[in-house]
Design brief:
This protein is α/β, with parallel strands linked by helices. The chain is built from 11 helices and 10 strands. A hairpin with a 6-residue loop joins strand 7 and strand 8. The structure holds adenosine-5'-triphosphate (ATP), magnesium ion and fe (iii) ion.
Length: about 325
């Protein structure tokens, strides 16, 4: 079965053709990072305009690269939320037009379900119950899945998302947007000398908090400056990253034990983080727990993951109508 998937929730315009929810026939991603860089973050109006300019070309390229024709498709899938509403609408309207023109069923996809299902593109099968650690620009969540399409959020961030914290700390240090990869690179050359706070919260909580850590980084920089001392930027990055990783891995580990998990999936842009990947791989190297982390290009936003998530809706014939809208506040547990 062939799904054409479209993703325009933020600053990547992407289209993909996915076979049987598993095989990537094409996955074309056009990033707008260069256009947003000088503003230090994603500017919604600029994002929308880029999506409008790009969407037709990207979809045609995805179809061509897959070596298929619109008539071969079984469904069209699109990210309906969360994301920037003006950006989402471009993808939603393109998907509706294609569905209408070629008489295809339409599937609305939750962006975070997409990040999670990126893992289905790299393993033979997902095995339940599983735990997904979602670490992205807008989300930090531990999600328990007892079966396909069932998402129970057992922990989430109470303030900043982890990617957001990375980007804000990076901006404070003077690194370009998006800062996550730069901090990751610097951290590998530094040492955790600062021993910044670890936000464990209540002993039994799976929630996260990163704004305190972000403030600790800013205060530390300020204090060093006032004392006229230099801090190695590599050590600052390493200290920040060590605190983030220790909490992410620690809470994941506790949830795996409590919920009797066989398979751990990592999802979202921050899953590209080398420090996090190494720490998780070390944790589960000699264990029965099957750890899966997507390759870098499937961690950040892309349409292939949207096609993978859409396949579970296609199987159940859960389609949406032409009244589909961009829905920034869409609830994963209800999706
Ligand atoms: P969401 O998926 O929650 O809607 P988003 O789509 O904007 O948010 P993603 O594209 O999944 O987020 O991820 C982007 C984030 O990933 C950015 O904050 C970026 O800094 C971060 N990121 C990318 N690579 C790395 C890395 N190597 N280390 C840390 N963070 C990284
Ligand atoms: Mg992005
Ligand atoms: Fe994302």
């Amino acid at each position: 079965e062939l799904i054409l998937a479209i993703e325009t929730s933020c600053d990547e315009t992407s289209a993909a053709v996915i076979e049987d929810g598993k095989r990537i026939l094409s996955n074309v991603v056009s990033s707008q990072i260069e256009s947003h860089k000088r503003f230090g973050g994603v500017v919604p109006e600029i994002a929308s305009r880029h999506h409008v300019e790009q969407i037709t070309v990207i979809v045609e390229e995805a179809i061509k690269k897959a070596g298929v024709d619109f008539e071969d498709l079984d469904a069209v899938a699109v990210t309906e939320g969360p994301g920037l509403v003006g950006a989402l609408l471009i993808g939603v309207n393109a998907a509706k037009a294609i569905a209408y023109a070629h008489d295809l069923p339409l599937i609305g996809v939750h962006h975070i379900a997409g990040h999670i299902y990126a893992n289905q593109l790299i393993v033979d099968s997902l095995t339940f119950p599983l735990l997904a650690l979602v670490v992205s620009g807008g989300h930090t969540e531990l999600i328990y899945m007892k079966e396909h399409g069932s998402f129970e959020i057992i922990g989430e961030t109470r303030d900043d998302a982890v990617g957001e914290a990375y980007d804000k700390v990076a901006r404070t240090i003077g690194l370009p947007y998006p800062g996550g990869p730069h901090i990751d690179r610097l951290a590998a050359e530094g040492t955790d000398v600062l021993k910044l706070p670890r936000a464990w919260l209540e002993a039994d909580s799976y929630d996260f908090s990163f704004s305190g850590l972000k403030s600790a980084v800013i205060n530390t920089l300020h204090n060093y400056k006032q004392r006229g001392e230099e801090i190695k930027v590599e050590d600052l990055a390493a200290s920040f990253q060590a605190s983030v990783i220790e909490v992410l891995v620690g809470k994941t580990k506790r949830a795996v034990e409590q919920y009797n998990i066989n398979q751990v999936l990592v999802a979202g842009g921050v899953a590209a983080n080398k420090g996090l990947r190494n720490a998780l791989e070390a944790e589960y190297a000699d264990s029965n727990v099957n750890l899966i982390i997507p390759p870098l290009n499937l961690c950040t936003d892309n349409a292939a993951m949207i096609g993978a998530a859409a396949s579970i809706k296609l199987k159940k014939k859960e389609f949406v109508g032409y009244d589909l809208n961009g829905n920034p506040g869409i609830d994963l547990e209800q999706w």
